[in-house]
Amino acid sequence: MTKIIMETSVVDDIPILSIFQEKLYSCPLVFFIHGYGADREQAIDFGYMLAKKGFYYVSMDCKGHGERKGKNESNKFHQVFPRDTGLDTYVHMHEVIEQSAIDIQNLIEYFKGKERIDTNKIGISGFSMGGYASFYISANNPDIKVAIPIAGKPSFTKSWLDTITSTATYEQWSTQIQDAVKEVEKRTEYFQMIDPFDKLSGFFPKPLLIINGDQDIDSPYFYSLELYKKLLPVYSEQPDKFKLSMPFINHQFTYSMKQEACDWFEKHLG
């Protein structure tokens, strides 16, 4: 009978949750990054599903989340926008994403040499903020061999500018947005610096599955569709390694989406 182990630990001040088979070694490693406001336990069932298939699953509390919540953290930007707009939160989310990439690299270094894990086979996935982060990390970390961003956006700059434009259409906020034009420009430069959209062409020929509900209003599918159209010619000679899945769903990570992600990892990383 297969025994699944679930344990928590702290690596380089990063609280992690690991799920794996007790007697299995040289397992492919899959990282999962949770959504904004959630924690490392967000997708325990997904971790269990992957562990049953022979993967070593690791999720972490991202900066300012879970056991890291309330700890001193340095941020690039202070609050300048009306609180109800959510703009400062949106900017902070990307700072969390940027730190998550650093954390994932530190975890990869930690797991190198561990007999339970094959660090030549590393995949990444994440939901919502974790979907954004999966795009970002895949574009910048060559150790990632398979990626499955879920309900995220790959174009950070366009999404930010669209958000600013739409927010400014509200009468109660339009003047404040106009008065904060220099602060908007500073944050736009930041988004341009970390934007993974163009870099993702370099992920080829590694397998990439993008999952984005076609009813999702938090992460509208058209941002993923733009990336899909951009990468279709790049993956034309290996189309089985590239897919955009748009289930009839809103901003959720459903069982069927988890099953699709598990199958993709099993096919391309197992």
Describe the protein's architecture and organization.
It is a single chain. The radius of gyration is 19 Å and the shape is globular. It has an eight-stranded mixed β-sheet with strand order 1-2-4-3-5-6-7-8, with helices on both faces. It has helices at residues 44-52, 87-111, 129-140, 156-167, 171-179, 181-194, 221-231, 255-268, and strands at 4-11, 14-21, 27-33, 56-60, 117-127, 146-150, 208-211, 242-245. The chain has a single domain, classed as Alpha/Beta hydrolase fold, catalytic domain (Rossmann fold, 3-Layer(aba) Sandwich), CATH 3.40.50.1820. It contains eight helices and eight strands. α2 (87-111) crosses α3 (129-140) and α4 (156-167) runs antiparallel to α6. It is 39% helix and 19% strand. The mean pLDDT is 96. By secondary structure, the chain is an alpha/beta fold.
